[in-house]
Amino acid sequence: MTYRVGIDIGGTFTDFALLKGEEVLLHKNLSTPSDRSEGVMSGLQELARKEGLSLEEFMGQCDAFVHGTTVADNTLIEMNGAITGLITTAGFRDEMEYRRGFKEDIWDVRLKPPPQITPRRRRLTVPGRILHDGSVYVDLDEDAVRECCRRLRKQNVESVAISFIFSFVNPAHEQRAAEIVREEMPGVQVACSHEVLPRAPEYDRTSTTVVNAYVAPRVTSYLQRLVTRVAEAGYKNQLMVMQASGGVMTREYIAGAPVRVLASGPAGGVIGSAHVGVAKGYPNLLCVDMGGTSYDISMVLNGRAPALAGWNMHHRYLVGVPMVQVETLGAGGGSICHVNNGEVAVGPSSAGAEPGPICYGRGGDKPTITDALLMMGILCAEAEFAGGSFSLSRNGVEEAFAAIGDQMGYSAEDAAFDCWRVVNASMTQGVRRTTAGKGIDPRDMCMLAYGGNGPAFAAIQAEELGISRVLVPRASPTFSALGTLVADPSIDEERSYLAPADRLEVDVMKTLWLELAKRARKFFTDANLSLGDVTARYQMNMRYPGQNFALTFTVSVEQGLGELVFLDNAIGQKAIAAFNEKHLQEYGHIREHEIPEVTGVRLATSVKTASPVFTRGFTAPSKSAQRAKTRRANLGSGYRATDVYLGADLFPGHEIEGPAIIEESFTTIVVYPDWKLLVDDAGDYELVRR
Prior knowledge:
17 helices, Dna Topoisomerase Vi A Subunit, Chain: A, domain 2, globular, 9-stranded mixed beta sheet, 32% helix, Dna Ligase, domain 1, single chain, Nucleotidyltransferase, domain 5
């Protein structure tokens, strides 16, 4: 027997999905913030125990070990990255602070900019200038670079970002500066913008490079520590890491630009959703993931979750690498409930895994949404929690909500219900903002709910949004971990090329695409992946003159990394037609009499690998399920005796009319009034509005 293991580390739980043949086994354990590899190894030990194997035997039989990590995100959230310096072109010292004048909330006059990763004393400039055509206008002042190193050394800088003007056209100055930095500052990490994000605009490239330099030491040291530990445990293959683009790749590839793993955890869930949606016959999905710390909103359209490279703001810093689009709110099971200026508020602060909600019994003393669900009877202290790893306790929970109720003038139960209403309204409003911003009507979509807490709120949110069907796969509690097993090894990179679309230099474009193909070929070969199985999407970035942002579209899809037979002298006219069609889809109009301009070429490559199989259909005879018990619960319309069912007792064909509660090993599904739950042929759940 061989295994494939997918892992996703969240703020509260570390999730595991084990693919054993076509069977998927789930596991959760609390995350270990002080050393996240500890939580990973303890979970692997438990999976081995369940399989009746020692850890060494289990790891020796693992074909793939795929990991989604939040190390980069946590580094930005907690602001505990490397001491970072920036060396840039003379005259561009303060570009990081200007931020294009961008402000996340234009109505908040007191909103401060994000804390500087590189304060001004660590942003240094050197003479030297490359022009837009790649020619050298002013030679690089190497003595000035050495002086920058001396000043950064005195400030104990651990990581250096280098970003020069037009280095994406001619990287010679950056390459030489990097050599000098490594000579003068041995042991520091160096991030060059032409390697991290080789394209314009200048601020995007500099910001992405600085963020990369800031998170790189933490990411690379964590991955190295994890690689060492799993190798010592008997794992013989390469560690694969989830990227924000929705693909996975080797640790060696990630080391070249660790910023690629930023927001990679949520990306796994979206990729898994696209896979399930297509299998179930729902190619357009509204995906909602409520975990312990956050609530993530994303969409799958026509069966795909495209990764966009552009104006991606994460934790208030611009990161221009390709990312699956996910909107995140500070609303999870661990979100802390409190009173703010006479109103009940929830989050964005979270109790996390340590100490966690009060009901975890690990020292938490602030009420959370998980505590509110326990007060409302949706969760139960008598039931196993998180797969039986521990049980919840009511000790201290009622007192905490009584304190909120005293401030608001009502009971502890009403306080818990009020917190439930507030967080539900916050999440639903977040969905409305996200869909409206993309011009999408949620009523035309099917909702897919996952995460440990997502199915507890999904149906009531769907009702408020006008959605009539909700998918809840059995694997939903660890769906982001499952998504890492669905994701294919992929490399998505681009090179800058500026030219009007009617005057393209075919030889130049061919050279750039072949350079990208050479890189993809190297890393896929190193990962022991078959080059014959590579799917290559040759893409272009284009815009109309005067536009600030480009659209990306596919020119050709090829099997293998071939000779670019599609590239001929008619490529310009083909590209114009494809771009106009894309622009019409995105913005509803085209400029018929304007010639668009190319800003770059892009190559997205992937290799298909084995992944979990999902099936569809309701062919089993309909039958009523046998309830396990009843308990007093409030499902939004007051407390009443509510039927409770065990997920282990439900099989294809079972139907349950709401109001009801389904207790699964790692999650709780709420069937609200006017909804019913169906179990399909695969054993997955669908909630349907009556």
